[in-house]
Write a structure and sequence with these properties.
heterodimer, A: mainly alpha, Hypothetical protein af1432, globular, B: 96 residues, alpha+beta, Molybdopterin biosynthesis moea protein, domain 2, 2 domains, two-stranded antiparallel ribbon, 14% strand
Chain lengths: 284, 96
């Protein structure tokens, strides 16, 4: 593989132009980093931001948590989902605001992957379910950065995906010679994400190569394939990613359980109104 | 197999996938022959769809064909590995 051209690298990783985390979000993250905070302090800060509060409440009321009554208080939501998913929502919000314009549907795809990864992580009795869900929410963050920093090349990537019927990942390789998993891992490093989240982002297309968190990365890889297969994906990014055989082997999932799992996943996806547009006949 | 809504369930349809409630407790095992009583219980539990053996509910052929084609196209880039093909075919069955 030829090296990434110097000007692409410079523009992509130009730290001065990186999306910044809003002041309020930074305050919330700092409060959480300190570890010594009250639930009231945290929920009061989150409630000041309507978008953030909305996303926290949407997640807690998602079918994954299977709650019988609707949660309307941010404080109660934090108790139920834990602080790590809240952190993921904060970190993704500033970048995904850009993504919604440039890659419509990417937030829905990421949110759907997060919910499905949570279900699978539960199925595999994983201990870091919150972290896996957060990483799934952020797995395509590199695509957002590429679109923000390299608008002309991104247009070229979209054109190539359309005309050649290839995946975004292959088009990225052709046009800019760097792919969104590597770019995502780089920004995760810049923003000091915990290693588990960084590794899942870096290896979500090749979980079999992940040394420390192979099963966690394979869960997000499988979710990505299932969610795209069902059709919850960004409009310019419909292709199901290349399947990683080693990652699948690491999951040690009996093949005859796929039917039950996919059926449950579809129940979960259909119960979330945000995803109905991807499943409705009109959209198809 | 076919995924059908509770309204479409008729006696003698056979469950192809075990039904669980929101907490993961098993309600009915796969292989069970459904009766009107099952339908009432499923409605009470707010379960909207179940997967049954065969394809007992008739659907619009054109719609099925169109959707299958779309799903095939999405999977072209995913490699012809047997697991991927299985995932693709299950999704086709479940969505139609």
């Amino acid at each position: 593989m030829t090296p990434v051209a110097a000007d692409i690298k410079e523009r992509l990783f130009n730290i001065r132009e990186l999306p910044t985390i809003p002041v309020l979000h930074n305050r919330i993250l700092k409060l959480m980093d300190g570890g010594n905070y009250s639930l009231d302090d945290l929920s009061n800060l989150i409630e000041r931001d309507q978008v953030l509060s909305g996303k926290v409440l949407k997640l807690v009321n998602s079918p994954f948590y299977g709650l019988y009554s609707r949660v309307a208080s941010v404080g109660k939501a934090i108790v139920l989902i834990g602080s790590n998913p809240v952190r993921g929502i904060i970190l993704s919000t500033s970048l995904f605001d850009i993504a919604d314009e440039k890659l419509p549907g990417l937030w829905d795809h990421s949110y759907c992957c997060s919910v499905v990864s949570g279900f699978l992580a539960n199925r595999f009795n994983m201990k870091d379910i919150g972290e896996i869900m957060t990483a799934a929410l952020l797995h395509d963050i590199g695509k957002v950065l590429i679109r923000k920093q390299l608008p002309e090349e991104s247009a070229e990537i979209d054109k190539t995906v359309q005309s050649r019927g290839i995946s975004v990942m292959d088009a990225e390789k052709m046009i800019i010679n760097v792919t969104h998993d590597a770019v995502g891992s780089w920004i995760a490093g810049q923003w000091n994400f915990p290693p588990i989240i960084n590794d899942i982002i870096a290896y979500h297309h090749k979980p079999g190569l992940c040394g420390t968190y192979p099963k966690e990365a394979a869960i997000v890889h499988l979710s990505d394939i299932i969610v795209k297969g069902i059709g919850v994906s960004a409009s310019m990014d419909r292709a199901v990613p290349l399947f990683d055989e080693q990652g699948w082997k690491n999951l040690a999932l009996p093949e005859d359980e796929l039917m039950d799992i996919l059926s449950e996943v579809l129940d979960i996806i259909e119960a979330e109104p945000a995803f109905s547009q991807y499943l409705s006949k009109e959209k198809r | 197999m076919q995924r059908v809504s509770i309204d479409e369930v008729r006696p003698a349809m056979v469950l192809a996938v075990t039904i669980k409630d929101n907490n993961g407790n098993i309600l009915f095992l796969k292989g069970v022959e459904l009766t009107d009583r099952h339908t009432v219980l499923l409605n009470n539990r707010d379960i909207r769809k179940v997967v049954v053996e065969g394809r007992p509910v008739k659907r619009e052929e054109n719609e099925i064909e169109k959707l299958h084609k779309e799903i095939d196209e999405r999977f072209v880039t995913a490699s012809p590995n047997s697991i991927v093909l299985k995932i693709r075919d299950i999704i086709k069955d479940l969505l139609t």
